[in-house]
Each structure stands twice: as C-alpha cells, then as structure tokens.
Write a structure and sequence with these properties.
98 residues; mainly beta; 40% strand; 8 strands
Length: 98
C-alpha cells in the first residue's frame, strides 16, 4: 500500500468490520455504528496548512487503529479516505465501538 498516498490533509484507512460465528458455524458481520468507524491507517497524505501558514502535524501514524467520523468519508476501492480533522482518537486494536 506504500505506493498509494492520499491528497494533502487526508489519510487512507482500511475499515475494520467485525465478523462473528454462531455455534452452528454461520458466519455473520456485526451491525456497524451509524456515525463512527474503526480502522487501520494504511497511509497518510501530507499535512494541512493552517490559515497562519503553519503546518498542522499528524497525531497518528501508519499502522495505528483510529476511530473516525464516517459521515464525511470518501471511499475508493474499499479504502476510506478521511480528513485528518475527522479522526477522533487513536485506539487499541481490541477496542470495540457499539
């Protein structure tokens, strides 16, 4: 994925969708949260500039799991392109949202 970098001010995130399995072996996908999603950062675009001309540094890095606002995303080939300002938190891989 290192050959794909989003535009300035955005990150490419692979959305994490939990899958489950019943006792009888039926595989299912759990219901997703309507406003927030969790995913793994695949790559980051260049930082944005503030109105003062100062660069706004990233708070997340490639490989981090993040929570983000899914209302403002762009999807490209199954990858969510998310503005850095829409990333809410850096979380552990095992963090669940409900």
């Amino acid at each position: 994925m290192s050959d794909f970098y989003p535009m300035r001010g955005k990150s490419a995130i692979q959305r994490w969708t939990p899958e489950g399995e019943t006792e009888s072996g039926i595989i299912f996908t759990a219901k997703e949260h309507p406003w927030f999603a969790k995913g793994k950062v695949l790559s980051r675009g260049l930082p944005e500039y503030l109105s003062s001309g100062k660069e706004m540094n990233h708070t997340h890095k490639e490989g981090d799991y993040v929570l983000y606002n899914r209302q403002n995303i762009e999807n490209f080939m199954g990858i969510d392109l998310v503005k850095h300002e829409d990333i809410i938190a850096i979380v552990d891989e095992n963090t669940k949202i409900s």
